[in-house]
Amino acid sequence: MKIHNSKTNLFLALAACAALVLSACSNDDATGSAEAQSDNPNSITMSWPRDIGPMNPHVYNPSQLITQSMIYEPLVSYEEGGEIEPHLAESWTVSEDGLEYTFKLREGVQFTDGSSLTSEVVKKNFDAVLANKNSHSWLGVINVLDKIEVVDELTFKMVLTQAYYPALQDLAVVRPVRILGEAGFPEDGDTSKGITEPVGTGPWVLDEYKTDEYAVFKRNPDYWGESPELEEVTIKIIPDAETRVLAFEKGELDLIYGEGVVSMDSFNYLKETGEYTTDLSDPVATRTMLVNSTSEKLSDLNVRLALHHGFNKQAMVEGITLGLEEKADSILSSNFPYAEEDIEAVEYDVEKAASYLDEAGWKLESGGAVREKDGQPLELELIYDKTDPIQKAMAETLQAEWSAIGVKLNIAGLELTEQIERRKAGNFDLDFWSNYGAPYDPHSMINVVAEDGWGVSEAHSNLPMKTELDEQVHEALASTDETKRQELYGSILNTLQEQAVFIPISYMKKTVAYQNDIESFEFPANRDEHPFNDISVSK
Question: Residue 158: which region, alpha, beta or left (left: phi > 0; alpha: psi -120 to 50)?
Fold first, then answer.
């Protein structure tokens, strides 16, 4: 594998080029090194907003889920309709008390270095994750995982400290529970500090990589399962959304895929040309505003409710997503389990928003633009991912709408890593957040409400019923009584809605646009899986 570490100023030129009409641009490759162009007819090139990262399966950003899922595989997979199917584990049994899961691994599975998948390797992976347990507290199964026991070469046992009903769903996620080969571990086994190389069992192998420019994946010739039809996938790193569209129209990209990877204007434009195939997935998650109750000004429920009532959600969703996303009235869309409970929608009402702020003591002086209390202005900051055009547009809309109720909103576009770090540190007033989608939810969404370490539970820590809320979460995840579990989910979701610590905005969908020589494409059932195994081309 060829690895290039040099960075260039190429994308500064790209941003300028994207602002010009197509004919004014150079005929040279405008989106990456010529080394990234493939002559293989059975290949595709797509774009991604950021570098793929070091491909460590046991840690998070900057590694990208789409590419991690190409290399590393789960014990079980999440399929359409929420079905859990065998993957690296061909079968399993669960003890009556729900504390022991015994898995039988497939025979003959090899890592890309030629070594075999064994129970010892699986145990080494889980031991590495448990050694860094605090970083993974958002994933419920990690909190109740006691140990992995090797039974024989292809059989191992997962022992829990308490029953946890969504254990198998958690094992289907992309990170941190996919399996790294022995050769990928550092000498001390501590993968939290890095890996030596990305060694997986998956259908793809990282063949060539140039930091911040491109990554080339080749089909794994020794893959144990059904091989993809494609032989090669090139991912070009193009941070600017409109530059992606320009490259696609010039034929430099075969595929634009993902969430927030192009503006809805651009998506509709590509659709309306009739020259390409476009599609939308079913709702995959809810776009919400995470409100930090530990922020002095947002510790007051009346202020949080004022913000929720104080913008026209329907108009914003229609204007920014052009109706391609749906207005969200609750934190979970109805296609998720336990989301059927009646949740009272918070309607747009500027007068009610103003009344809440008056009640909280924030007064708008005659002729004034910003409310004040004890000589302090009602000024808040919203942080967002600067590479996401939808987040940016929504931030600007909120800035304008909340000014009408006397709230000054400062908006700050950040690199995704900085956005996440600030969230985890509690260094924010408002932040865009979404639930995790399939196969994580609803259980992972309520778990992160109760477990510290990711900024969400901490943002809710000023709620007067926080202790009771956390107890309900833990009881729901451990319950074996379906009726009781439904009741607990209903209580939890209603509390979060009433306390306005999440402001649901819209139900998110993935978008895809592809050239007409791509003959088949399917959205993965798992939100974070790559789509490349099911693509075929007619080049």
Answer: beta
What is Dmax (Cα atoms) for the chain?
Answer: 78
Separation between Cα atoms, residue 350 and residue 164, nearest integer Å: 44
pLDDT for 35 equals 52
Average pLDDT, the chain: 90
Contact, 145 vs 131, CB < 8 A? no
Question: Which bin fits 170, alpha (ψ -120 to 50), beta or left (φ > 0)?
Answer: alpha
How many degrees, rounded to 5, is the angle at CA 80 between CA 79 and CA 82? 75
Contact 235, 244 (CB under 8 A): no
The pLDDT score that the predictor gives to residue 8 is 35
Burial class (CB in 10 A: 0-12, 13-18, 19+), 287: buried
The bridge status of strand 255-258 relative to strand 100-105 is: unpaired
Name every residue whose Cβ is closer than 8 Å to that of residue 501 and which is 6 or more positions away in sequence: 290, 291, 293, 304, 459, 460, 463
Displacement of CA 375 from its chain's centroid (Å): 40
- pLDDT the model gives residue 283: 84
Mean pLDDT over 292-321 rounds to 96
Decide if 46 contacts 215 (C-beta within 8 A): no
The SS3 of residue 423 is helix
Cα(290)–Cα(434) distance, rounded to whole angstroms? 9
Q: How is residue 305 written in tokens?
A: 């409710």
Torsion of CA 473, 478, 480, 483, to 10 degrees: -10
Residue-wise pLDDT for 104-155, tens only, equals 999 999 999 999 999 999 999 999 999 999 899 888 899 999 999 999 999 9
Q: What pTM value is reported for the model?
A: 0.76
Q: Give the pair of three-digit tokens for residue 148.
A: 């992995």
- Section 328-333 average pLDDT: 91
Instruction: Single out the residue of 504, 497, 513, 502 nearest to residue 317, CA to CA.
Output: 504
Question: What is d(CA 191, CA 175) in angstroms, rounded to the nearest whole number?
Answer: 13
Q: Please report the sign of the dihedral spanned by the C-alpha atoms of residue 264, residue 268, residue 270, residue 271.
A: positive
Taking the CA atoms of 17, 23, 26 and 29 in sequence, report the sign of the dihedral they define: positive
3-state secondary structure of 203: coil
10, 213 Cβ separation under 8 angstroms: yes
How many Å apart are CA 198 and CA 179, to the nearest integer? 10
Eight-state DSSP code of residue 36: G
Residue whose C-alpha is closest to residue 411's, from 381, 434, 387? 381
Q: How far apart are CA 438 and CA 527, in angstroms?
A: 6
Task: Note the residue count of the chain.
Answer: 539
